Amino acid sequence: MLTYYSDDHRLQDGKAELIDGRLEPCHEAPVRADIVLRHVRAAGLGEIVAPGDHGLAPIARIHAANYLGFLQTAWPKWVAEHGDYDALPLNWAVRGMRSVEPDSIDGKLSYFSFDAGTPLTAGTWQAVYASAQVALGGAAAVGGGERMAFALCRPPGHHAAGDYFGGYCFLNNAAIAAQAFRDGGAERVAVLDVDYHHGNGTQTIFDDRSDVFFASIHADPRQEYPFFLGHADETGSGAGEGATANYPLPWGTAWGGYEQALEQAVGRIGTFGAEALVISLGVDSFKDDPISRFRLEHEDFLHIGAAIAGIGLPTLIVMEGGYAVDALGVNVVNVLKGYLD
Ligand code: SP5
Ligand code: ZN
């Protein structure tokens, strides 16, 4: 199997996120990718490959032009206003307010985001562009006949929608890859999101589409971030009605409860008739994850990998969350091993 990876992930290295009422060191940090890469190497799972440059066009298939323009130009505007320190939004439009793009950089940051946990920095654009290229490199390999590839994306992507960032995500790598499969000739593509948090960005992007099935297993939004999407009654809209499936699970869920949801999601993907599969792989469902409340053990990730392999489709596994840094490498490698065995 091939692992796609770019060193440019290092360029996203935020100082702090707003969490639990405090500005604390970012959980989503460069060390995450370093550890996963080290464990993939040590496990002898195959070559580590640079993605090459697939350009902006496949990213623009998913993200709005004004949003991409904002991401590329925000940093110097922020520095001119506030100096060389992380850019963080501070307030958002809610019920009854208007969605008119402001002129000032502070207003634009609010307009194009949904939380204060996702700092935009000097290197953000270069890092997120490279992360999307990693996903595109993996998608090209799978489209070219590889059974499975691993895109070691960082920053992650599944919380990013067409025109907003949040949840440590700026560009939706999994959605960009799924669209690349479509544009490469696959009639139907499935995305299975096993990150602890609901993949609100991916769901929003494909909500009204019948050609991309989205299934997500995650902590119940009644209890957990991102709070405002991921309920079981969200099943897609318009032409996409029936092409979304959500499996919200309560805090404290261990393998028993998780496995049932996974079996159901896998069954739905089988019925859908996809030609390619994208996995949004978060391992923040691990029992010791510092910001999450599921209870999966190391070996449960082997079972997740095996269940994914059982779907029997050409598969791109895209890295999303997972913040128990010491355990991250083992858990990700277990998914990959579980798939390959
Ligand atoms: C890709 C990904 O996994 N993004 C997750 C973003 C989560 N950000 C908000 C986390 C809020 C956590 N609240 C509980 C903290 C426990 N101290
Ligand atoms: Zn997550």
Query: How many extended strands?
Result: 10
The CATH architecture comes to 3-Layer(aba) Sandwich
Describe the global form: globular
Domain count, please report it: 1
Outline the low-pLDDT stretches: none
Structural class by SSE content: alpha/beta
Strands of the largest sheet, in order across it? 4-1-5-10-9-6-7-8
CATH class category: Alpha Beta
CATH homology-level superfamily = Histone deacetylase domain
User: Might you state the CATH topology name?
Assistant: Arginase, Chain A
Per DSSP, what share of the residues sits in E-state strands of 2 or more residues? 5-15%
Which ions, cofactors or small ligands are bound in this entry? N-[3-({4-[(3-aminopropyl)amino]butyl}amino)propyl]acetamide, zinc ion
Considering DSSP H and I runs of 4 or more, what fraction of the residues is helical? 25-40%
Descriptive report:
The protein is an alpha/beta fold and 341 residues long. The chain has one domain: Histone deacetylase domain (Arginase, Chain A, 3-Layer(aba) Sandwich). The protein has helices spanning 30-42, 57-60, 65-82, 105-111, 124-143, 173-183, 200-206, 255-272, 300-311, 325-340; strands at residues 2-4, 17-19, 22-24, 48-49, 148-151, 189-193, 212-219, 244-249, 276-281, 315-319. An eight-stranded parallel beta sheet has the order 4-1-5-10-9-6-7-8, with helices on both faces. α3 (65-82) packs across α4 (105-111) and α5 runs parallel beside α6 (173-183). The N and C termini lie close together (12 Å). The model has no long low-confidence stretch (mean pLDDT 98). The site of zinc ion has 7 residues, from loops. Its cofactor is Zn(2+).
